[in-house]
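Working notes for the structural subgroup meeting. M.R. asked for a predicted model of this chain before we commit to crystallization trials. I am recording the input and output together here so anyone reviewing the notebook later can reproduce the run.

Input as submitted:
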Amino acid sequence: EKAVNLKKDLAEMQEWMTQAEEEYLEKDFEYKSPEELENAVEEMKRAKEDVLQKEVRVKILKDNIKMLAAKVPSSGQDLATELNVVLENYQLLCNRIRGKCHTLEEVWSCWIELLQYLDLETAWLNSLEERVQMTENLPDKLDAVNDALESLESVLRHPADNRTQIRELGQTLIDGGILDDIISEKLEAFNARYEELSHLAVSRQIALEQQLQTMRETNHMLQVLQENLAELDRQLTSYLTDRVDAFQMPQEAQ
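Returned structure, recorded in token form:
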């Protein structure tokens, strides 16, 4: 009777493993939304926990069959053969579910990491847009233009590492058919805004550099003119002080 019960337990265990394999490993999943992906991750975590909890039951079966084999070798031998098959299938099931759970967790982590990089770069784009707007309607002063140019250039020196991560993470998920529509839409919107603002910022940078150069040249010309006028004023004052007749002065002084 004990052998019959153990045989029944082995059959039930094998049936449960077959059902678990069909439910968790053979279904075709399509992750078209973050919610679907997150639910799949949680389901696989529960599946892994459920399968690992059966380890106690498997151990009890193994111990009972060993005890029976010691007492009734003939019955125990047949059960031991069935047990080996169940143990092999159980270990395979554990490994596959662990593997799938790990893969889904990695995919979810990849998605979260992509969102974080997009948030960082979106914040940078907001800052760049703000700096570009600050370059409009500047007062016609050298310091104001110079400060605006330095401020814009400091934002433009932003490294490209985050954008590289966004591109690689997004492509990895899209290649796997995971959230491909959502990710493609997000990347398209981000890249379009990045290209637009980058071109606008570089154009404003060039315009400010040219404006700054013109202002510096003008200031230099005014300074030279002012120095020449001061020298002429000094000479004229000297002539007047010495009561020199105008017709005795050089032509330019007249």
